[in-house]
Known about the structure:
Elements: E1 18-19, E2 22-24, H1 28-32, H2 34-45, E3 48-53, E4 57-62, H3 65-73, E5 78-79, H4 86-89, H5 100-103, H6 114-128, H7 133-152, E6 156-158, H8 159-164, H9 167-176, H10 183-194, H11 200-220, H12 226-232, H13 239-270, H14 272-279, H15 285-295, E7 301-307, E8 311-313, E9 316-318, E10 323-327, H16 328-332, H17 364-381, E11 386-387, E12 396-398, E13 403-405, E14 409-411, H18 447-464
Parallel strand pairs: 2-3, 4-10
Antiparallel strand pairs: 1-2, 3-4, 5-7, 6-14, 7-10, 8-9, 11-14, 12-13
Amino acid sequence: MSTNPVPPPQCPAHNxxxxxxxxxLHGPEAQADPMGLYEKLRAEHGPVAxxxxxxxxxxxxxxxHRENLDVARTPSRFARDPRGWRDMREGRVPAxxxxxxxxxxxxxxxxxxxxxxxxxxxxxxxxxxxxxKRGIRRYVTRFAxxxxxxxxxxxxxxxVSAFSDQLPMLVMTQLVGAPDEHGPRLxxxxxxxxxxxxxxxESDRYVTATLExxxxxxxxxxxxxxxxxxxxxxxxxxxxxxxxxxxxVLIAAYExxxxxxxxxxxxxxxxxxxxxxxxxxxLTLPDALEQVLWDDxxxxxxxxxxxxGDTMLGGQQVRAGDMLLxxxxxxxxxxxxxxxxxxxxHGNRSHLAFSSGPHECPGQDIGRAIADTGIEVxxxxxxxxQLAVDQSALRWRGTLMSRHLLALPVRxxxxxxxxxxxxxYPEQPSGxxxxxxxxxxxxxxxPAAVAAAGRxxxxxxxRLLGLD
Length: 468
């Protein structure tokens, strides 16, 4: 029986911010203002704070930038294998915990260390590197134009539901090799799973079943996609290992990239200094993405690491088997490295948005390419975007891992789609329903048109600022 019984939902204690003097990383306070909670914890405990996760199970939240790097870069002290979690071994973790997808061991690189990790991660990294970066950007351009076509004639839209939540999964579905028709449901399942809702395990099963069917198909009909390349890699991954790595890549790329796009668009539309830096040429769009990765990273917290032995961290005594959470957002705001949070971090990529060490996100460049290119297309097509509500009306849904912008209402001048919205999914060759084909450049993208687009770029930033 659990030694940390959870009060029933109708009990006032269920929504209390603290239990036994420890702050919950779940519940109203943590969801409403995670950064405020991190700073409260930093003031009370320093760079490492004792907290409670779902089920009121104890954990350590790593708040300091240096301490986050220490944990991420020393797997000999802080292992990635969740089977080392003492509460799990001693039966205190509920069978249907919302944390299940993040703490249930499977044969995947982000749950392993040492030679096994090197073998599995090597297969993923080398397979991802086989994608042609220009081909990825053509995918993004095509799908971003398709999404803009759907809203261009309306004069208003919610950029979260209509754009940032859709684009990453459309692209990643193609790269992974899954059939297009799975895209919409995969979006919902991925979001549900990562939010740790009551249906997270059901969503996890749907994603896994979809990818299991893909692996079976690719063994018979290989294609130029991630599923096929993992199957043929010299690391000789088992079918289960291929399946689980497809799942990790698909879900991780979706969540981080969707949040990065939404957070960047929100910043562009609400921060006049940020917009002025872009329009004045002081920041390029890739530079702007890095600033957002510092200030509003797509993932707040990573679950987790598990101490391999008793050790000291940030002045705290950590016991063998304790869970540790990497506080990426908190580490980025560490006053030891950012005494002035308003100061520019131009050119500085030492943020923790993609973690660090041997488990640093292997697909971060693909995520950057999707966000950079997608936002470029959106702002080029709709240069007069304006926020349709006061920024104080914006709302987020918070979870242990991330804070997701619920909606980003905008208005703009309605405009007809000149070619009738001819940005369909890439055609699939006969007999290969999930074969990812890199679409050819749009016919309109002739050299003269490209040059014209290049000349327009300063204009759409000026128009966004109301200067044209």
